[in-house]
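can u do me a favor
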């Protein structure tokens, strides 16, 4: 057996062959990338044996920590049965059990589960379902969607179309379908006086004028994650849901980032008593173990797709690994841990420590805004607190702060000038203190 490759050898192969997502590869090696080899709890361990606090949950997916025994055991047990079987013309035990579990936990009224493999595809499916729904019920003019200006819902063509982040999406404009845009009700950079009432007035005016053309309103509930952890005003989501019901526009909530405890409740919509028509989940669904997503639908939507074979009402969409048994087994074990370990209760004292540490960060001269909901945190860095002047894109300030945090063995990832904290729900009080201390020191040393 040959000796394992060194970090230098692995980096050379990586640079020669791997094209990393959302990465300018020309500067890849200069950014001193890490190669992760193993893990333990909330820590990742690189090929040089150094330990790193995974303060972004490996891109917002890890829930109960890495190498969790119960999740490891669930996947191993499923491997002893079958690793994959199709849901096209067949069924599987884990996919059935998981669908029933999701329905039992989801807002009342969501009764059907359509599986896919990523957050992007779960949104793509919801958009296609909503579009086809209105065709099937005899209202073919309802083809357009409403979304927020800084929305991010994934990277497939449909999910990019309902997205609204110029940096990510401008290049693909001619591939996309048109969407009605409304302003993001983000208090820190709101141009008016009252983001809640003024945003709702804009939305109601749009729905009143064009509801006969609108198929659905797509929105991340409570927090717009990739937009920079933008927080919606209290009551906004509930009143948007009321407007959608009044004007008969399907409400599609994207819980890909906010779901599975990230905001302090299992699903963010619970905090405003909202039941959408379609709900998209992914990321934390399997606890960060395997790719799996689901689009949950209510009976109103589902029933429209039923009919004789010759009516061709079928939802003609699917994925090879739809409802993969290994992933479903991991998801079932992940959801079970929420109950047995009382995860949402155990988060509370850690949230308090995060809040205390972030209050100190908020006083720093170049911190314009600190936003938090549960374990979703955004720290916006500005040149001037009084004017809210932003740092230029080329300055890479957020990136430099995240690099500086490595001095404390803390892994972060920026969204432009916003430093994002999204730790696993298993974060300890001691790790929360380390995290906020590291961020504060990194900002001080970088700005």
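np, heres the sequence
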């Amino acid at each position: 057996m040959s000796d394992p490759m060194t970090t230098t050898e692995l980096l050379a192969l990586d640079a020669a062959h791997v094209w990393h997502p959302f990465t300018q590869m020309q500067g890849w090696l200069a950014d001193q990338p890490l190669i992760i080899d193993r893990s333990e709890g909330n820590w990742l361990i690189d090929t040089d044996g150094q330990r790193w606090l995974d303060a972004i949950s490996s891109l917002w997916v890890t829930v109960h920590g890495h190498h969790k025994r119960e999740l490891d055991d669930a996947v191993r047990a499923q491997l002893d049965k079958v690793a994959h079987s199709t849901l096209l013309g067949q069924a599987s035990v884990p996919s059935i059990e998981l669908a029933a579990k999701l329905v039992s936990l989801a807002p009342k009224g969501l009764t059907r589960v359509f599986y896919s493999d990523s957050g992007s595809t779960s949104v793509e499916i919801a958009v296609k379902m909503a579009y086809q729904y209105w065709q099937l019920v005899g209202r073919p003019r309802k083809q357009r969607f409403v979304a927020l200006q800084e929305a991010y819902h994934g990277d497939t063509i449909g999910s990019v179309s309902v997205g609204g982040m110029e940096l990510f999406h401008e290049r693909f404009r001619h591939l996309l379908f048109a969407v009605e845009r409304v302003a993001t009700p983000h208090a820190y950079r709101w141009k008016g006086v009252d983001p809640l009432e003024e945003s709702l007035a804009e939305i109601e005016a749009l729905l009143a004028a064009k509801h006969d053309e609108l198929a659905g309103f797509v929105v991340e509930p409570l927090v717009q994650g990739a937009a920079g952890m933008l927080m919606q005003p209290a009551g906004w989501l509930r009143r948007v849901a009321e407007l959608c019901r009044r004007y008969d526009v399907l409400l599609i909530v994207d819980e890909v980032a906010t779901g599975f405890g990230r905001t302090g409740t299992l699903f963010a919509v619970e905090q405003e008593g909202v039941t959408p028509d379609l709900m998209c989940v992914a990321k934390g669904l399997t606890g960060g173990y395997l790719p799996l997503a689901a689009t949950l639908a209510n009976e109103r939507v589902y029933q429209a797709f039923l009919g004789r074979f010759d009516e061709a009402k079928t939802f003609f969409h699917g994925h090879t690994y739809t409802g993969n048994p290994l992933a479903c087994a991991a998801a079932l074990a992940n959801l079970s841990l929420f109950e047995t370990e009382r995860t949402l209760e155990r988060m509370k004292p850690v949230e308090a420590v995060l809040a205390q540490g972030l209050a100190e960060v908020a006083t720093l001269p170049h911190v314009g805004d600190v936003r938090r909901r549960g374990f979703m945190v955004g720290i916006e860095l500005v040149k001037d607190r009084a004017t809210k002047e932003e740092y230029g894109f080329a300055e890479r300030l957020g990136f430099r702060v995240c690099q500086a945090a490595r001095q404390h063995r803390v892994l972060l990832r920026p969204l432009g000038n916003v430093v994002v904290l999204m730790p696993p729900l298993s974060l300890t009080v001691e790790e929360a203190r380390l995290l906020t201390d590291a961020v504060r020191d990194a900002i001080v040393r970088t700005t």
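The first helix runs from residue 7 to 17. hope that helps!!
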